[in-house]
Design goal:
Helix 3 (135-146) packs parallel to helix 5 (198-206). 17% of the residues lie in helices and 29% in strands. With 509 residues, the chain is of the alpha+beta class. A hairpin with a 3-residue loop joins strand 22 (435-455) and strand 23 (459-462). Strands 17, 19, 20, 21, 22, 23, 24 and 25 form an eight-stranded mixed β-sheet that branches. It has helices at 30-40, 55-68, 135-146, 180-183, 198-206, 211-214, 367-376, 420-426, 476-480, 500-508; strands at 15-21, 44-48, 71-75, 84-88, 94-99, 110-118, 121-129, 153-158, 184-186, 192-195, 238-241, 250-251, 267-271, 302-304, 316-321, 324-329, 343-344, 361-365, 393-397, 402-404, 407-410, 435-455, 459-462, 468-471, 482-497. The protein has ten helices and 25 strands.
C-alpha cells in the first residue's frame, strides 16, 4: 500500500494483483475484457499477448491505461508479437525502475522486471510469458526467474505450465496427439507421462508460493473453459506467485467472467505485504507532514522547499520520429509521457520513510504528485480516495475556474470530507471566495504546460510567455512541443453546496 493511502482502514492494506492473457491482442473482445478488469480494481496487472498494441503510436495500450486509470510498462515480445504490458495504479504503487527484458532476448516471449514502492517497501515484480511449446525450454526460462526469489518479489504472468496441485485431464485424448509435447513429460522410452510441472517445481523450490495451494484451496482455472481451439482442457495458465505468507494474507477472489470476453479469464489475488519492521510509533522515522482529518492541511499535492521542479530541463533536446521533430529528453524513459503521449516535466521529491512529502510548502503544486492525484481523483490534501457515497466528488472552485455555464476547468483535485473544512479555511487560493460543488462528471481536458521550439539541430528553448492551458485535442504540432506541468480536468453535472459546514456535518453522520 502506498503511503498516500496510509490513513485508510487496515483491510485496504491488501494489494490486488492480477494476470490476464487477453488472447491475440483482444481484438473485438477488448471492451468486454476492460469492463471485467475495471470491476476487479487491481493495483498491479500483467497483460499477456498484447498483440498489435504497439500500432498507431500504441493507441490500444494508452486506451487501456486510461480506462483502467493505471500506468503502463511495455515489454516487446521476441516471438509472434505477444507483447507484455505491466500496469500499476499510481500513487498506491510507484515504479522506480523497469527492465523490459531481463534475459537479453533468451526468452521465447520475454520477461520484464519492475522495481516498485508500496507502503514504504521496495518490491520486485517479474512479469513473464513462458515458452508455450517446450517443457524443457520453459524450465530454462524459469531459471531466469528463480534468481529473484526473496520475500519482496512476485511473479505475474502466463507460465504455460500446470500447477503442482492441479489434476491432469481425465482424458488426454481431448488434446490432439501432436500437441502433447507442449504439456506432458517425455518418458525414457519416448512415450508421454503426466503433465509436465518441472518449471513450477523449480519456482516453488526457489521460494515462490502458489497462493491457492498455500491456502489449501481449489486453484482457479484460467483457460480451456469456453470457445473453440485445439486445447479444450480446463486448466491453469495464468499465475500470481508470491513469497510464502500467513494464510490470512492471500485471498484468491471470486467473480464471474463474461463469455464474450474470450476463452481465457483473468486471475487476481489480494496480497498483503510484510510489515515495515520495528519502528516505534511516534518515532522520527514515522513522522510526516500529512494532516489528520480536521487539522490544518499541509497539502499532499503542494511542492515543498528543497524539491526541484524542472530538475532535468537541461536534458531537453529535439527528438526525431517519422511524424516529425518533437520535444524529448535525451534519456527519455517510459514514464516521462502520460497516456496521451504528452511529455512531462521532471522534478525531485522530498519524502519521508513512509513516502509522504516533507518540508515547508513552496507555494505551488508538485507536478508529479498533482498528476497522480488528479488522474485518480484522490483528495489533494491527504492523497486518500475522495469519492462520496453517491459516486460524486466535492470540489472547492474559484470564479476564474468557471469557463462557461455549468462547466469548470481546474488543476486542483477534489477534497475528501475529512479535510474539506480545513481546506476551505486555510487554502490561500480560496481567500477571495469560492464555491463548493458536488461534481457528477469529470473528464481529462488537457495540461498546463510550456511550449518549446527548436534552436539549431539539437537544442531547444521555451517560447516566450507563461505556462498556458493546452487541450489534449490541440493540434499535434502543439502537443509535440509541450512540456506539461499540471493535469487539467473539466467538471460538469454540477450541484452547488449552499452551506458547506452543514453538508459536512450531515455527510459525516
Amino acid at each position: 500500500m502506498s503511503s498516500v493511502l496510509r490513513s485508510m482502514p487496515p483491510e485496504d492494506a491488501l494489494r490486488r494483483v492480477g494476470s490476464y492473457n487477453v488472447m491475440d491482442g483482444s481484438g473485438d473482445r477488448w471492451a468486454g475484457q476492460i469492463d471485467l478488469l475495471e470491476s476487479l480494481d487491481l493495483d498491479i496487472l500483467g497483460i499477456q499477448e498484447a498483440k498489435h498494441w504497439e500500432r498507431q503510436d500504441r493507441a490500444r495500450l494508452h486506451a487501456t491505461a486510461e480506462r483502467l486509470g493505471m500506468q503502463p510498462l511495455f515489454a516487446p515480445s521476441q516471438s509472434h508479437g505477444c507483447h507484455l504490458v505491466l500496469f500499476y495504479r499510481w500513487p498506491r504503487v510507484r515504479c522506480t525502475q523497469f527492465t523490459p527484458d531481463i534475459s537479453n532476448g533468451r526468452f521465447h516471449h520475454t520477461a520484464s522486471r519492475a522495481v516498485m514502492k508500496v507502503a514504504g517497501l521496495t518490491i520486485k515484480v517479474l512479469h513473464a510469458h513462458l515458452h508455450p511449446f517446450s517443457p524443457a525450454l520453459r524450465l530454462t526460462e524459469a531459471g531466469w526467474l528463480t534468481e529473484y526469489a526473496d520475500e519482496f518479489s512476485m511473479i505475474v504472468g502466463d507460465l504455460n505450465v500446470s500447477g503442482l496441485g492441479d489434476e491432469d485431464p481425465a482424458d488426454w485424448n481431448r488434446v490432439p496427439s501432436h500437441l502433447h509435447s507442449r504439456h506432458r513429460k517425455v518418458l525414457p522410452d519416448g512415450s508421454y507421462g503426466g503433465a509436465d510441472r518441472d518449471a513450477m517445481r523449480a519456482l516453488r523450490s526457489a521460494g515462490f508460493a502458489d497462493p491457492p495451494l498455500h491456502l489449501g484451496r481449489v486453484p482457479p482455472r484460467t483457460t480451456g473453459h469456453w470457445g473453440g481451439g485445439t486445447e479444450r482442457w480446463d486448466r491453469r495458465s495464468d499465475y500470481v506467485l508470491a513469497p510464502p505468507v500467513d494464510p490470512g494474507d492471500l485471498r484468491p477472489p471470486g467473480g464471474g467472467h463474461p463469455h464474450g470476453a474470450g476463452s481465457l479469464r483473468p486471475l487476481a489475488h489480494d496480497h498483503r505485504l510484510p510489515p515495515l519492521g520495528a519502528v516505534p510509533p511516534g518515532s522520527s522515522a514515522m513522522i510526516d507532514s500529512t494532516p489528520a482529518p480536521g487539522a490544518d492541511p499541509a497539502f499532499y499535492v503542494t511542492a515543498r522547499a528543497g524539491e526541484v521542479i524542472g530538475a532535468d530541463a537541461v536534458s531537453l533536446i529535439v527528438g526525431r520520429a517519422p511524424e516529425g521533430e518533437h520535444l524529448t529528453y535525451w534519456d527519455e524513459t517510459e514514464g516521462d509521457r502520460d497516456s496521451k503521449g504528452v511529455l512531462w516535466t521532471r522534478c525531485s521529491q522530498r519524502l519521508s520513510r513512509t513516502e509522504r512529502p516533507v518540508g515547508e510548502p513552496a507555494g505551488c503544486l508538485h507536478p508529479d504528485r498533482q498528476y497522480g492525484i488528479q488522474l485518480h481523483r484522490y483528495c489533494g490534501a491527504c492523497g486518500c480516495p475522495a469519492r462520496l457515497r453517491d459516486g460524486r466528488y466535492l470540489h472547492l472552485v474559484t470564479e476564474d475556474e468557471r469557463v462557461e455555464s455549468g462547466v469548470v476547468r481546474t488543476v486542483h483535485p477534489p477534497v475528501c470530507l475529512g479535510h474539506a473544512a480545513a481546506c476551505a479555511a486555510r487554502d490561500p487560493r480560496l481567500r477571495n471566495g469560492f464555491s463548493a460543488l458536488l461534481v457528477g462528471a469529470s473528464a481529462l481536458w488537457g495540461v498546463v504546460g510550456t511550449l518549446y521550439e527548436p534552436v539549431g539541430r539539437h537544442e531547444v528553448r521555451p517560447r516566450p510567455g507563461e505556462p498556458r492551458p493546452i487541450p489534449y485535442g490541440a493540434d499535434a504540432e502543439i502537443l509535440r512541443w509541450a512540456l506539461a506541468g499540471l493535469l487539467v480536468r473539466e467538471l460538469s453535472d454540477l450541484e452547488g453546496v449552499v452551506d458547506l459546514d452543514r453538508f459536512l456535518r450531515e455527510s459525516s453522520v
